[in-house]
Amino acid sequence: MSSDMRQTPAPLTDDELRSLDAHWRAANYLSVGQIYLMDNPLLTEPLRPEHVKPRLLGHWGTSPGLNMIHTHLDRLIKNRDLNTLCVWGPGHGGPAVLANSWLEGSYSETYPDVTRDAAGMARLFRQFSFPGGVPSHVAPETPGSIHEGGELGYALSHAYGAALDNPDLLVVCVIGDGEAETGPLAAAWHSTAFLDPVGDGAVLPILHLNGYKIANPSVLARLPEDDLDALLRGYGHDPLHVTGDEPAAVHRALAAALDTAVDRIDTVRRAAREGGVTDRPRWPMIVLRTPKGWTGPAEVDGVPVEGTWRSHQVPLAAVRDDPAHLRQLEAWLRSYRPEELFDEHGVPRADVLACIPAGRRRLGATPYANGGLLLRELPLPPLGKYAVEVDRPGATLHEPTRVVGALLRDVMAATADRRDFRLVGPDETASNRLDAVYAASGKAWQARLLPVDEHLERHGRVMEILSEHTCQGWLEGYLLTGRHGLFSCYEAFVHIVDSMVNQHIKWLRTTRRLTWRAPIASLNYLLTSHVWRQDHNGFSHQDPGFVDHVLNKSPEAVRVYFPPDANTLLAVTDHVLRSRDYVNVIVAGKQPCFDWLSLEDATVHCARGASVWEWAGTENGSREPDVVLACAGDVPTLEVLAAAQLLRRHLPDLSVRVVNVVDIARLMPSGEHPHGMSDFEYDGLFTADKPVIFAYHGYPWLIHRLAYRRTGHRHMHVRGYKEIGTTTTPFDMVVANDLDRYRLVMDVIDRVPGLAVRASVVRQRMEDVRLRHHSWIREHGTDLPEVVDWSWEPTGPSPR
């Protein structure tokens, strides 16, 4: 529709303008009060130094603009009865969002001691950035929030994730100057190519440019309007520009822009839902330019503040010590005319509250910001349908992720009508052997289609974009608004979201302590194409360290799993998809892998987290083992079992115990992690004084860090990835990092007392094979025949 054919919104009446301005001034007053005051909230007496907090913290610069936006969203929601969620990108402007939540009453409903009167206002002010109080950022404690504002970059991808499969939801996303310069935000603009106007909600970005970041001008604010307009149009938007510093004019212009934007969204939706239009729409957005620190001190100590970077945090920093600053603060607060905004009891007057919507339409009360309230159990089918048959260990091979792909396909099919499950990943669904899901859903895509394209669908629920940041943000927004999902990624490149997952873990840890927040579905990673099977791509694709990063975080919120075969991967996947309030990391291979356990045994093994594989060792039960071979990960498990077989063949009198670890946190003491083992359990599994040769998937020092307090830690020797990689054969990767079966046998000989002399010939044979391997691969380009053709030779009874 051309712009001249669009309906022009009715202008604000004088009464509407007066009421909106009163609400905005009240929010500004409350924002300043939170930063500065600990007493005298209504200024019923002259301001004195003791009324001011000893430590002044918070961010004023963005707050008046956020208050303006919140005020006008209230009007829009009320007038049109909209189902709305707002994501506050400049979340460091926490005073503004808290102020508006208090004005609308949702804050007092959530925290009854912070009443909507003078006493509650005093608590609201005092608690802000105060010991034992609330954070200065928009945070989990903030009603209506799904987005922690401490780290910038993620607001827009969160907003799109929230809109997916919520066809009646309007998600407003406020983006600030600093956030607009980040890589994650820049990639998230491409989300317009994935948003389905039929099955998804709408995202309305508001790019709020006040010109500055902490200490510098912002890039987009300095662009000429035509250049900025062209950039945003290239991303798929139809921008509406609102610029000004005179409040009445900005009120009128912003009201008109929001009405126009929602009208255009309605037009897009009707065209797609009723008219069958499949062309990619051009979605509206708003560019709002207002001064940084608007309505605050114009100058402080003769230096410009309003409209500059100096207003970013606390414009008047010496209020308790400098009488001039104290007088300026009082004048600033009184400029909002609080006596017109609140009655003598501190209750907001009717004009201030006139624009606020009712009930769950309020931004601080929307259930979409407390997604656990909307969460439904995922319809997971019985695992027996997907299990591989295991008559005896190591007799067959399967690609574990391909097996679990069939499970995900059926989960996708079972949620086709309710649309509350999504699979996200950076262009790797097929590469990671999960392409069975395409039988139930294609890949979301709204851009141009070509005849050569495959599996692209307007209404698809598989999400692929080559931006791990955007995948992470989409999934977080989706989960936080009450749905389920899984993130599949190459192991080496999931590190790109290290900082994002850190923020999500902090969010989960905090919400666990908030009784009013309902549990949400866990954030689940499936990391594959891992370090030991990236021999073809080489060193750049070899990094198993994401689990180290995750295990540094809050123990109650993180879980890490290393399923060694297809059935254990099925059991772990079923478990994590049922879980709540965790970040679960699964590391599993996509290449053909031996099947070690039946589904029944895999389920028991996963429930234990770590257990002895009796069928793999040579214990006779009459005495403790001479050595423990432990493993975590599919390739380490293969190498440990091959080493156990070599030991059985060459040193038949040696008593060997094989322990496989699926849940790596089991190694931690029970007092440090909910899944940790007691010392009694740990010593029973690994012994207190016998050598433990541990073959681990990742960096070996992680195992030492997890187990360093154990009695037998000094007897533990860990092999893992030593940051040695290249493009080479699969087995050469393990040899290069000393994780191979022959090295493990040598470790056993070196560490079992008395064995070094008695088994010196065996040790020499193992070394000879390693030398022969080195020559063989350089001549033939393939691994040794005894490695390529290796198979497990069963001894004794198989598992149940």
From TrEMBL:
<dbReference type="InterPro" id="IPR023962">
    <property type="entry name" value="Phosphoketolase"/>
</dbReference>
<dbReference type="Pfam" id="PF03894">
    <property type="entry name" value="XFP"/>
</dbReference>
<keyword id="KW-0456">Lyase</keyword>
<dbReference type="Pfam" id="PF09363">
    <property type="entry name" value="XFP_C"/>
</dbReference>
<feature type="domain" description="Xylulose 5-phosphate/Fructose 6-phosphate phosphoketolase N-terminal">
    <location>
        <begin position="12"/>
        <end position="373"/>
    </location>
</feature>
<comment type="similarity">
    <text>Belongs to the XFP family.</text>
</comment>
<dbReference type="Pfam" id="PF09364">
    <property type="entry name" value="XFP_N"/>
</dbReference>
<protein>
    <recommendedName>
        <fullName>Probable phosphoketolase</fullName>
        <ecNumber>4.1.2.-</ecNumber>
    </recommendedName>
</protein>
<dbReference type="InterPro" id="IPR029061">
    <property type="entry name" value="THDP-binding"/>
</dbReference>
<dbReference type="InterPro" id="IPR005593">
    <property type="entry name" value="Xul5P/Fru6P_PKetolase"/>
</dbReference>
<dbReference type="InterPro" id="IPR018969">
    <property type="entry name" value="Xul5P/Fru6P_PKetolase_C"/>
</dbReference>
<dbReference type="InterPro" id="IPR019790">
    <property type="entry name" value="Xul5P/Fru6P_PKetolase_CS"/>
</dbReference>
<dbReference type="InterPro" id="IPR018970">
    <property type="entry name" value="Xul5P/Fru6P_PKetolase_N"/>
</dbReference>
<feature type="domain" description="Xylulose 5-phosphate/Fructose 6-phosphate phosphoketolase C-terminal">
    <location>
        <begin position="590"/>
        <end position="792"/>
    </location>
</feature>
<keyword id="KW-0786">Thiamine pyrophosphate</keyword>
<dbReference type="InterPro" id="IPR009014">
    <property type="entry name" value="Transketo_C/PFOR_II"/>
</dbReference>
<dbReference type="InterPro" id="IPR019789">
    <property type="entry name" value="Xul5P/Fru6P_PKetolase_ThDP_BS"/>
</dbReference>
